[in-house]
Amino acid sequence: MHYDRDSVEVERTGRHVRLARTQKYQSLDVPAEQQLPGGRRRPNVEQTTLAAYQNDPKAGHHLHFEGETLWPDDHRYTGHHWGLIIDLNKCTGCSACAVSCQAENNVPVVGRDEVRRSSEMHWLRIDRYYTGEGADVDVLYQPMMCHQCDNAPCETVCPVIATAHSDEGLNQQVYNRCVGTRYCANNCPYKVRRFNWFNYAHPDKVQNLAMNPDVTVRTRGVMEKCSFCVQLIQSAKLEAKRRGVELADGDIQTACQQSCPSKAIVFGDLNDPKSAIAKATESPRCFQVLAELNVRPTVGYLRVVRNREGGEEHNHHV
Predict the structure, then answer these.
(1) Binning pLDDT at 50, 70 and 90, where does residue 315 land?
(2) Which of 1, 83, 169, 296 registers the highest number of CB atoms within 10 A of its CB?
(3) Position 315 in a domain
(4) 9 assigned to some structural domain
(5) pLDDT, tens digit, 9 for 90 and up, residues 240-297
(6) How far apart are alpha carbons 313 and 316 in whole angstroms?
(7) By the 8 A CB rule, do 267 and 124 touch?
């Protein structure tokens, strides 16, 4: 069927509709006063060109942070130490990871009214940035979830120790201990914690069958966030124990990793030098967001390399 666009007319209706969107809510932006030498603002997504990368594999890296810490180095992970890396060159911003996270972890789907009140519940968001000016514009996507920080700022402010570190480097959330102060959300530099305002469990048992039985449905008044799909970690460990074999690299795949069509997400044991995650962290393209805060995140990214002419990188903004 053919439609003639010249026959379409647009008129003012006089009605006003408030839009509900999460696109820019809680996106990270660097204040103007936090500048790099030369007056440039430090970007949250690092990128470079192919020519610059071939000349220097670390091209596009903006921050070389080697600072002191207030915490004693007394939390050595002698067993597993879980981490996650996202290759931003492969990420297309399709949001399959966010949808799979929602389904796997019983994250409630809230409606338009709650989104308008800034009460969205998703544990994983897709930040997006523009680079360039005018008609020469590129888009960069950056999945953002709990970074499972080794020096987690959320843990230092919780009055009831509802968030604490496991011996495998996971930033755990004890739901039945949380009293909902939201101090942790205020202290999180990545803004990836969600406060549950309502009870989302269904009174109908048949409706509840749609929920993942391996994951708790959180009650109102508690904080919740990405757990690196701890239920999948435990399931793989128990299966390896049942079979009498060692847990191998690749046995555990988080929900976001399983659903990523471009295989941009790598998850594994940072303490295993032969693992894919350990090799990814050694890549010269690897960088961390807000590393200067010394929160020691275990989530990292691989820098974007563009096959284009021009300078090393373009300034970009939300």
Answers:
(1) very low
(2) 83
(3) no
(4) no
(5) 999 999 999 999 999 999 999 999 999 999 999 999 999 999 999 999 998 888 889 9
(6) 9
(7) no
CA-to-CA separations, 110 to 119, 168, 198, 200, in angstroms, rounded: 8, 32, 10, 9
Higher pLDDT, residue 8 or 241:
241
Both tokens of 309, joined, read: 């002419």
**pTM confidence score:** 0.86
Given pLDDT bands bounded at 50, 70 and 90, which one contains residue 27? low
Residue 29 in any domain: the answer is no
Higher pLDDT among residues 313 and 103, named by residue: 103
Per the domain annotation, does 13 fall within a domain?
A: no
The tally of domains found in the chain comes to 1
Which of 14-28, 96-110, 210-224 has the lowest average pLDDT? 14-28
Which domain, by its residues, includes 47? 34-65+81-310
Q: Give the span between the Cα atoms of 251 and 245, in whole angstroms.
A: 11
Distance CA 224, CA 284 (A): 33
pLDDT at 209 over 60: yes
What are the tens digits of pLDDT across the range 294-309? Answer: 889 999 999 999 888 7
Q: What is the DSSP string of the chain?
A: ----GGG---------------SSTT-----TTSB-TTSPBPPSS-EEEHHHHHH-TTTT---------SS-S----SS--EEEEEETTT-----HHHHHHHHHTT-----HHHHHTT----S-EEEEEEEEETTEEEEEEEEE-----TT-TTTTT-TT--EEE-TTS-EEE-GGG-----HHHHH-TT---EE--S----SSHHHHTTS-TTS--PPTT-EE---S-HHHHHHHHHHHHHHT-PPPTTS---HHHHH-TT--EEEEETT-TTSHHHHHHTSTTEE-TTGGG----SEEEEPEEE---SSS---EE-
d(CA 196, CA 2): 48
**More reliable by pLDDT, 68 or 133:** 133
